[in-house]
Amino acid sequence: MLPREFVNYQDKLYWVYKKMASSKIKEGYTNDLKEFWRCDVVVRNPNDNVLLFLKEIPEAQVIS
User: Fold this and answer.
1) For the chain, what is the domain count?
2) Can you give the pLDDT at residue 1?
């Protein structure tokens, strides 16, 4: 699966794994979904009340 959407959040680069309307998730189950999908962060999009499940893209490390 190739990421299509990227988000810069708190000076880190993330790719959007899932988008889901907050009304479709029962209260208290957001963290369970985050762990199930192995996402690093869940944020709410302020414009349209959608939850973004984000996975961090680690910085490249040069190994010599």
Assistant:
1) 1
2) 61
